TrEMBL record:
<dbReference type="InterPro" id="IPR006076">
    <property type="entry name" value="FAD-dep_OxRdtase"/>
</dbReference>
<dbReference type="InterPro" id="IPR036188">
    <property type="entry name" value="FAD/NAD-bd_sf"/>
</dbReference>
<dbReference type="InterPro" id="IPR038299">
    <property type="entry name" value="DAO_C_sf"/>
</dbReference>
<dbReference type="GO" id="GO:0004368">
    <property type="term" value="F:glycerol-3-phosphate dehydrogenase (quinone) activity"/>
</dbReference>
<feature type="domain" description="FAD dependent oxidoreductase">
    <location>
        <begin position="18"/>
        <end position="375"/>
    </location>
</feature>
<dbReference type="Pfam" id="PF16901">
    <property type="entry name" value="DAO_C"/>
</dbReference>
<dbReference type="InterPro" id="IPR000447">
    <property type="entry name" value="G3P_DH_FAD-dep"/>
</dbReference>
<keyword id="KW-0560">Oxidoreductase</keyword>
<dbReference type="Pfam" id="PF01266">
    <property type="entry name" value="DAO"/>
</dbReference>
<dbReference type="GO" id="GO:0006071">
    <property type="term" value="P:glycerol metabolic process"/>
</dbReference>
<keyword id="KW-0319">Glycerol metabolism</keyword>
<keyword id="KW-0274">FAD</keyword>
<keyword id="KW-0285">Flavoprotein</keyword>
<feature type="domain" description="Alpha-glycerophosphate oxidase C-terminal">
    <location>
        <begin position="408"/>
        <end position="501"/>
    </location>
</feature>
<dbReference type="GO" id="GO:0046168">
    <property type="term" value="P:glycerol-3-phosphate catabolic process"/>
</dbReference>
<dbReference type="InterPro" id="IPR031656">
    <property type="entry name" value="DAO_C"/>
</dbReference>
<protein>
    <submittedName>
        <fullName>Glycerol-3-phosphate dehydrogenase/oxidase</fullName>
    </submittedName>
</protein>
Length: 520
């Protein structure tokens, strides 16, 4: 079902679609799933790989946004908390409860955050992940063993969600296909088709692997390309004004010893007025994020030295175990597709994170803004808008209760294969059939060769970057090790895909270049 040749053949058999979605990040995949589950003939095209951009570079949180609550954006927080609850129900193998502790160094902080988080609890309603509570200095010290104790008054515990972003994206792509959509990565839209009246009626696209070109007709074309939104808008109208201003968020990944317990830390006020999180993730610690307005966008954004220094400096202000650049296992940068500021006085942290749906004169529909937590609601609103415009017949949204591929009971992190959910048994079966696939990719890693084979055969991985960045998350967890194992993984890829030695070498060279952005 997830075989690329089979999916490409569907393009040859079908040139007419109800909905074509451009972009395979959280937003595009959500839109495609909403569309196909309503019964519409749906095609999604992604220029590189699912979640290649922003959607694999998040803080790994499914959250309402405590910061937005402090800004008084109650509606956004309430909507996100509701969607957080649905994500837990629909993808329980990837989304789980994470306890956060806000350390308090003044009695006022203790009072302020206790009250504020009670409001957060209240807004969660029936979909609460757990009640917040004030804890003593002793309990805070016991639970956060590496936290600085000087002047510590206590802490406030609250609950939010945590997940694996690109794993969820892959599962969303699989769910789309299971419901009848055609979903393709490494397939670039090169042009928008228009009829005699100047209305959008389809796209031209090129298969990046074969260089074959396709002309595809559609009743609705949806631009869900995140920071590349303006590129598609200019494809429609060369004079279109920029709608997006990318804001860069950087994270560093540290060894688990920096946060040995199960709790995350939320630092509510940094010197730039943002919040900083230290979150346990895949037996490491993700620390971030920053907010830097950028002039341009890229598929591989690079962390600025001042962003890295800011994160390390802020972490060191709270941790007893010193963090140095040499301790960083990986560093990743993502670009948020923020609405372009009206003027220079508008700070990125104050720009609304609400999503926006734009209808161009040509009929092109663009969905921008939002965040991972609200991807489902963004998709629902987008397809509702397309229906309202008369491009599609009325059909009810069913994604509130639609289980995502892999959904299988509650999250159990006792061993690392948990992210595969109901697919876990097939990976174990692969190892039983071929015991050599049970070998670890590296002595410092928990991942096995079987996971690489599974990613290629069943998760549409086509390149070394697809495997090591977004299927088996090594690049995000230990970038130097990812470079070390690249030849082994490239060899498995070449065997599975029937590629030659020259292709293998090209893959290693290309991946090594990408990985250089993740190494300090």
């Amino acid at each position: 079902m997830f075989n690329r040749a089979t999916l490409v053949n569907q393009l040859k058999e079908n040139t007419d679609w109800d909905v074509i979605v451009i972009g395979g990040g959280a937003t595009g995949l959500g839109v495609a799933l909403d569309s196909v589950s309503r019964g519409f003939k749906t095609l999604l095209l992604e220029q590189v790989d699912f979640a290649k951009g922003t959607s694999s570079r998040s803080t790994k949180l499914v959250h309402g946004g405590v910061r937005y609550l402090a800004q008084g954006n109650i509606d956004l927080v309430k909507e996100a908390l509701y969607e957080r609850g649905l994500m837990l129900k629909n993808a329980p193998h990837l989304v789980g409860d994470q306890s956060f502790i806000i350390p308090n160094y003044s009695w006022w902080d203790s009072f302020f955050y206790t009250i504020g988080l009670k409001v957060y609890d209240f807004l969660s309603g029936k979909l609460s992940f757990g009640k917040s509570s004030r804890i003593s200095k002793d309990e805070t010290e016991t639970r956060l063993k590496t936290l600085k104790k000087k002047r510590l008054k206590g802490g406030v515990v609250y609950h939010d969600g945590q997940f694996d972003d690109s794993r969820l994206a892959i599962n969303l792509a699989q769910t789309c296909i299971e419901h009848g959509a055609t979903v393709l990565n490494h397939f670039k839209v090169t042009n928008l088709l228009k009829n005699d009246t100047g209305k959008i009626c389809g796209v031209q696209a090129v298969d990046s692997e074969t260089k074959a070109s396709y002309t595809l007709n559609s009743r609705a074309v949806i631009n869900a390309t995140g920071v590349f939104t303006d590129d598609v808008l200019k494809m429609d109208n060369a004079q279109a004004k920029d709608k997006i201003r990318p804001s860069q968020g950087v994270h560093v990944v540290l060894d688990k010893s920096y946060l040995p317990g199960n709790d995350a830390i939320m630092i509510p006020k940094t010197k730039d007025g943002r919040v900083l999180f230290l979150v346990p993730w895949h037996n490491r610690v993700v620390v971030g994020t920053t907010d830097t307005l950028m002039e341009s966008h890229s598929l591989e954004p690079k962390a600025l030295s001042q962003e890295v220094e800011f994160i390390i400096e802020t972490a060191n202000a709270y941790l007893t175990k010193p963090v140095g650049k040499q301790d960083v296992l990986s560093i990743f940068a993502g670009l948020r597709p923020l609405a372009a500021p009206k003027d220079n006085s508008e700070k990125t942290k104050e720009i609304s994170r609400s999503h926006k749906i734009i209808k161009s004169k040509s009929g092109l529909i663009t969905i921008t803004g939002g965040k991972w937590t609200t991807y489902r609601r963004m998709a629902q609103d987008t397809i509702n808008r397309v229906i309202k415009l008369g491009k599609l017949p009325n059909a009810k949204c069913i994604t509130k209760t639609l289980l995502i591929h892999g959904a299988d009971g509650a999250l159990d992190k006792s061993e690392h294969l948990y992210v595969y959910g109901s697919d876990k048994k097939y990976i174990i079966a692969l190892i039983k059939k071929s015991p050599e696939l049970g070998e670890k990719l590296h002595e410092r890693l928990e991942f096995t060769k079987a996971e690489v084979v599974w990613a290629i055969r069943n998760e549409m991985a086509r390149t070394l970057d697809d495997v090591l960045a977004r299927r088996v998350r090594v690049l995000f967890l230990d970038a130097k090790v990812a470079v070390e194992i690249a030849p082994v993984v490239a060899s498995i890829l070449a065997t599975e895909l029937g590629r030659n030695e020259a292709w293998e070498k090209e893959q290693i060279a290309s991946f090594t270049k990408i990985a250089s952005h993740y190494i300090l």
